[in-house]
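ERI1 exoribonuclease
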Amino acid sequence: AKRWINIRKSYGNFYKVPRSQTKLTMMLEQLGMRYAGRPHSGLDDARNIAGIAARMLRDGCELR
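Predicted structure tokens:
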């Protein structure tokens, strides 16, 4: 991919939370979501991050 988004930074800016609260499990918990899959599995992490991104888009965030 030629472009990428720092989801932690975007999440913190959009929901107005400090960087210390932008760990994957914390972001999921704050959104009322559960971690799906095995911890530290790249594929499962990617799926969970995609869920966070989808929720942010539904909440009105413009991911850039």
